[in-house]
Amino acid sequence: MKLIYPAIFTPFSDGSGGYTVEVPDLPGCVTEGKDIIEAIEKGIDAASGWVLDELEDGKAIPKASDRKDLMVPEGSFINLLILDMNSYQEKYGQKTIRKNITIPAWLNTYGEKKGINFSRVLQDALLKEAQIS
Description:
- The chain contains four helices and four strands.
- It is α+β, with helices and mostly antiparallel strands.
């Protein structure tokens, strides 16, 4: 899932070339970077983390505002941040869920005797499958 949110970039007042980045649609989502490239990267990271937290908590995520509806302070500008939530979740997602599976009794006995972590084996297999696809 890809999302786009407008962000307000405000240059540091000290003239160092850095920027503060605020994503108005995501309350409290503010970060900064020492230059425009770092500011964009950190803006994407902060916004992606904000959205991932909401999704993992089962909450709806805010709809993105139209750029023309945003109040932009003098000297600031708007840039769109593109969030690749699938990639971000794959890299940083922390929430786990419980899944019940069915396996043959003999395989369960074998796994228990060998001390196999069934969850780890399933996760590894699913990750391998995802990388192949």
